[in-house]
Prior knowledge:
Number of helices: 4
Number of strands: 6
Helix content: 25-40%
Structural class: alpha+beta
Strand order of the largest sheet: 1-2-3-4-5-6
Order of helices and strands: HEEEHHEEEH
Distance between the termini: 21 Å
Largest sheet: 6 strands, mixed
Strand content: 25-35%
Radius of gyration: 15 Å
Amino acid sequence: MSAVRRMQILEQQAGKILISLGYEPVIVSNFVRSCRYIAFHLTANKKLDDGTIDSVMVKLKISLHPLESLEEATVFCSDEIASVKKFFERLPPDEKPFRFEVWLSIPLNGFQQFEITREGIREIRSPGDRASFTRGDS
């Protein structure tokens, strides 16, 4: 399977997960396929009960194994962290326009998920949660 085809499958799996969580995803990379580096693969919005919109940008990456620590995740996602940090530097400290997440495709069709915040990176879902939450083939 080609790398492009594999990424398309991962984008579809991630989109299904976002839909199951109530989001309306858009695969952004469809619009920028000619670009070698894609900042984010999906964007998704969900209207919350209070009328506000929860927005998330998702970057997909492939890892041969689950990351065992936040230090390892910081190194693995260093480009994304730097990019998001530059974005946050341009905004007022109290403004939070949307969330930035990195979803790592790991063996067995699961995703290990991390959020990049102003403070750094934090794990959202670990590989142990894979069976109940992050499988993309449902």
